[in-house]
Amino acid sequence: QVQLVESGGGSVQTGESLTLSCVASGYTASSLCMAWFRQNPGKDREGVAQIDSDGRTFVADSVKGRFTVSLDNANSTMSLQMNSLQPEDTARYYCAADLICQGHALYRGGYVYWGQGIQVTVSS
């Protein structure tokens, strides 16, 4: 069983930065396929970025060049560095994981384990 706990959300102004963290327990983060998703009420959950156990990353076009996903193996933590935040980045952000990467990197059906989510609000 994998438990995921997100932290680091909050409210910022347009152009500012935030870093989200997801601590994995049950398995070390470096042994998992992990990803970030985001969702607004009434909308589909959107894939943001993935990192696999070899450290390879995949980032959605909508955030490429602004968001960076990384792993801190020592602390079993996946992070999402978000720069130049825009109002359209406002969403609840979810950490997701599975024991292997399968299917498209940002297909939500490819992940069994999910965190509770954390809110990010960007105001203009």
Q: Which key phrases capture this entry?
A:
single chain; mainly beta; 124 residues; 7-stranded mixed β-sheet
Fold topology:
Blueprint: E1 3-7, E2 10-13, E3 18-25, E4 33-39, E5 46-51, E6 57-59, E7 67-72, E8 77-82, E9 91-98, E10 113-114, E11 118-123
Parallel strand pairs: 2-11
Antiparallel strand pairs: 1-3, 3-8, 4-5, 4-9, 5-6, 7-8, 9-10, 9-11
Task: Give a structural overview.
- With 124 residues, this protein is an all-beta fold.
- It is built from no helices and eleven strands.
- The chain has strands spanning 3-7, 10-13, 18-25, 33-39, 46-51, 57-59, 67-72, 77-82, 91-98, 113-114, 118-123.
- Strands 2, 4, 5, 6, 9, 10 and 11 form a seven-stranded mixed sheet that branches. Strands 1-3-8-7 form a four-stranded antiparallel sheet, with no helix packed on it.
- Strand 5 (46-51) and strand 6 form a beta hairpin.
- The chain starts with a strand and ends with a strand.
